[in-house]
Specification:
The complex is a heterodimer.
Chain A (H helix, E strand, L loop, with lengths): L1 H21 L4 E8 L6 E7 L2 H8 L2 H27 L3 E7 L4 E7 L2 E7 L3 E8 H14 L4
Antiparallel strand pairs in A: 1-2, 1-6, 3-4, 4-5, 5-6
Helix pairs in contact in A: 2-4, 3-4
Chain B lengths: L3 H15 L5 E8 L4 E8 H10 L1 E2 L2 E2 L2 E3 L10 H10 L3 E7 L3 E8 L2 E8 L4 E8 H7 L6 E3 H10 L3 E7 L4 E7 L6
Antiparallel strand pairs in B: 1-2, 1-12, 3-4, 4-5, 5-10, 6-7, 7-8, 8-9, 9-11, 11-12
The chains are: A alpha+beta, B alpha+beta.
Chain lengths: 145, 181
């Protein structure tokens, strides 16, 4: 009985640590709602850490060209992500026209993009830290920097 | 314990008071005819980090090349100092059949006012002197954008550009609010 208790505690501890590691970089939230009848409704919440880890398993040949292109802009992207991470939360861009509303907001270490048009509403929330890791992963795929 | 708490409270308050508020560059475009509205709020700290990282086209290392601009040996820094010390007033007035241009100095700011009579367009540019001086620190044929942003961070709340025509109004300004309205 004591052994079972110890095993249970071990599993619980491992699960807790794994959960903490997986959620350490926050979560990517994608929500798409098509407005027409029988339209698609998707709501996806994925631990952000999965993206750079998944990219490690993508063969380099698929990422090499994008990585080479991306590398030219890496200093700007790094500066932008670092600057965004350091600045306070708030709306960055808001565009309204008769058909569409687009907003980009920095909220709690994430960039949140909302689009509302006559066909669909889209909500994407991406943690900045995960974005940086994913971009670095793609850029390195093009060869050593 | 009784003495530590007030000291800690004073230290916390002091830290809050000393922390400079984030400064924002706002762009607001309103087109009532097309019912289009654009709001952009850029933290100046973000611009300060991104601008020096851009090395593309005429913008390199926080400085932008101005192709046809030649200082021809004129010390722009000294020139700005002299204009800064000069009393407020109008420096340049150009009146043409279709355009009026006015350059003036008022309350420590350089003001450029352009009226295009054909397109009924009005442009007002207000640049704090410190920002104008910072722009000129890059030397011949260059404007120091990075230094200008740093100077903007220290400048007070001010409207930098307004453009008004028949269809839309554009306003660019800086303040410490993270929303444009």
């Amino acid at each position: 009985m004591l052994l079972l208790g110890k095993l249970g505690l071990g599993f619980l501890g491992t699960a807790l640590v794994t959960g903490a590691i997986v959620s350490s970089e926050g979560f990517i939230h994608v929500k798409v709602h098509e407005k027409q009848t029988n339209g698609t409704h998707i709501s996806l919440v994925v631990p952000a850490m999965i993206v750079p880890v998944t990219l490690k398993f993508v063969p380099n040949r698929y990422l090499a060209q994008g990585g080479t292109e991306l590398r030219r802009y890496l200093p700007v992207i790094d500066a932008a992500i670092s600057g965004l991470a350091d600045c306070s939360d708030g709306p960055l861009v808001d565009v309204t026209d008769p058909d569409e509303h687009v907003s980009v907001v920095k909220s709690g270490g994430s960039i949140v993009v909302d689009v509302d048009d006559p066909n669909e509403t889209v909500h994407v929330s991406v943690p900045l830290h995960a974005t940086r890791s994913a971009i670095d992963e793609i850029a390195y795929a093009g060869g050593p920097i | 314990m009784k003495t530590i708490l007030p000291v800690l409270a004073v230290l916390c308050l002091g830290t809050v008071a000393l922390a400079a508020p984030e400064r924002y560059l706002h762009v607001k475009v309103d087109d009532p005819v097309g019912r289009e509205h654009v709001r952009v709020n850029i933290p100046l700290s973000l611009a300060e980090k991104v601008i020096p990282a851009i090395n593309q086209g005429q913008l390199r290392n926080g400085k932008v090349e101005v192709g046809n601009f030649h200082a021809n040996g004129v010390d722009l820094k000294m020139l700005f100092e002299a204009v800064k010390a000069a009393p407020d007033g109008e420096f340049v007035t150009v009146q043409e059949p279709d355009t009026n241009v006015r350059v003036a100095k008022s309350n420590g700011k350089m003001i450029v006012h352009v009226i295009d009579k054909n397109g009924s367009e009005k442009v007002d540019v207000t640049i704090p002197w410190e920002v104008a001086q910072a722009l000129a620190t890059a030397g011949d044929q260059q404007l120091n954008v990075e230094a200008a942003i740093q100077a903007l961070e220290k400048a007070g709340d001010t409207t930098l550009v307004t453009v008004t025509d028949n269809h839309q109004t554009i306003r660019v300004w800086i303040d410490s609010r993270n929303t444009g309205d």
